[in-house]
């Protein structure tokens, strides 16, 4: 469905760049809701899922909270708090580093790996939906999004609109 139809916009966008900004933002939230729905039955959040994926990628090496924060998609969340919730569920273990007692090392547990395996098994290709895009289109879109993030984008507010 076209973005204009999704947001019930009757006038054309002022520019294709504004349409792109609205479309990317809308699609981000749409996609996030799909992911939340796919994780609901596992009683984990998107941020918890992201941390488990990071830890599984590091396994068998432990990860510091600093490393986890660097690799997280949602940079604004409290990784320490989320790790503690995962620990309470039995999905991760936390230990103080022997060399530096200020550092906390986190390791995914077998139970945490089982949860991820179950999610991956249920969601083909790691996706909660069957996409209407081919693998080639997905790769192309991903490359375009990478290119977009390489841009210097500045948002300004036109005072005449206020």
Set out the fold topology.
Blueprint (H helix, E strand, L loop, with lengths): L2 H4 L9 H25 L5 H13 L4 E2 H7 L7 H10 L3 E5 L7 E5 L1 H13 L12 H15 L13
Antiparallel strand pairs: 1-3, 2-3
Helix pairs in contact: 3-5
Task: Describe this structure as you would to a colleague.
With about 160 residues, the chain is mostly helical. About 55% of the residues lie in helices and about 5% in strands. It contains seven helices and three strands; from the N terminus they run αααβααββαα. It has helices at about 5, 15-40, 45-60, 65-70, 80-90, 110-120, 135-150, and strands spanning about 65, 90-95, 105-110. The protein has a three-stranded antiparallel beta sheet with strand order 1-3-2. Helix 3 crosses helix 5. The longest helix has 25 residues, at about 15-40. The two termini are about 30 Å apart. About 10% of the residues are buried.
How would you briefly describe this protein structure?
The chain is mainly alpha-helical. It has seven helices and three strands, in the order H-H-H-E-H-H-E-E-H-H.
Keywords:
single chain, 162 residues, mainly alpha, three-stranded antiparallel sheet, 7 helices, 3 strands
Largest sheet: 3 strands, antiparallel
DSSP helical segment count: 7
Name the structural class.
mainly alpha
Mean pLDDT: 86
Shape: elongated
Fraction of residues in helix: 40-55%
Query: What is the N-to-C order of secondary-structure elements (H for helix, E for strand)?
Result: HHHEHHEEHH
Approximate strand percentage? 5-15%
End-to-end C-alpha gap: 31 Å
Radius of gyration: 20 Å
Largest sheet strand order: 1-3-2
Can you tell me the residue ranges where pLDDT is under 50 for at least 5 consecutive residues?
none
Number of strands: 3
